[in-house]
Specification:
Radius of gyration of chain B: 14 Å
Strand content of chain A: over 45%
Largest sheet of chain B: 6 strands, mixed
Radius of gyration of chain A: 13 Å
Structural class of chain B: mainly beta
Shape of chain B: globular
Oligomer: heterodimer
Helix content of chain B: under 10%
Order of helices and strands of chain B: EEEEEEEEEEEE
Helix content of chain A: under 10%
Structural class of chain A: mainly beta
Largest interface: A-B, 29 and 25 residues
Number of strands of chain B: 12
């Protein structure tokens, strides 16, 4: 068990560029979650998957955001036409279905200049 | 919708002493889970302790214990014998039962500094 892995750890981009983050969950976990954490705040839920199905999306997930989990293993989160307000830490977590404990990755810190 | 409030943005404690972090929440659910997560500087969030709402007994994990008051919707964390490694952001979080969706709702966090 290597834990939840997120790449890259840091991403600096210019406003208007597209970025993609990757999350590799704990191998046997069927559920995968994305959260966004702005500086000094608690994480906010964005979306979650059960296997390859995206079951819920927050209103925070604007049209510029898209998440996929094509084979029910790793997931990607893409932000198109980045804005300065997208600067945040993007956290991924995973869990077994119908279990309440989520295990978090170290996050991807995005800075939009 | 659920809300979680942590009213202490920052706290400090001397090493070996005891500190209590406060958390209140609002929900219309009768069954749910509550958590305290720890986020050390530049490191990943880890679970400290969890409480199931239908259990009246307060959860304990070594030096960490909770005071769960369901009627008051209060869920405080007590850290005994504080250690330098306890320095971190602490987040209180709420979750509806897993079969009703698993998303966590977090409070704004409390920054705890343990002083030598």
């Amino acid at each position: 068990d290597t834990g939840v892995s997120q790449n890259p750890r840091h991403k600096i981009t210019k406003r208007g560029q597209n970025v993609t983050f990757r999350c590799d969950p704990i191998s046997e976990h069927n559920r995968l979650y994305w959260y966004r954490q702005t500086l000094g705040q608690g994480p906010e839920f964005l979306t979650y998957f059960q296997n390859e199905a995206q079951l819920e999306k927050s209103r925070l997930l604007s049209d510029r955001f898209s998440a996929e989990r094509p084979k029910g293993s790793f997931s990607t989160l893409e932000i198109q036409r980045t804005e300065q307000g997208d600067s945040a830490m993007y956290l991924c977590a995973s869990s077994l279905v119908n279990e309440d404990i989520q295990y978090f990755g170290a996050g991807t810190r995005l800075s939009v200049l | 919708a659920q809300t979680v409030t942590q009213s202490q943005p920052e706290m400090s404690v001397q090493e070996a002493e005891t500190v209590t972090l406060s958390c209140t929440y609002d929900t219309s659910e009768s069954n749910y889970y509550l958590f305290w997560y720890k986020q050390p500087p530049s490191r990943q969030m880890i679970l400290v302790i969890r409480q199931e709402a239908y259990k009246q007994q307060n959860a304990t994990e070594n030096r960490f214990s909770v005071n769960f008051q369901k009627a008051a919707k209060s869920f405080s964390l007590k850290i005994s014998d504080s250690q330098l490694g306890d320095t971190a952001m602490y987040f209180c979080a709420f979750m509806k039962p897993p079969n009703a969706g698993n998303m966590l709702t977090f409070g704004g966090g409390t920054r705890l500094m343990v002083k030598p």
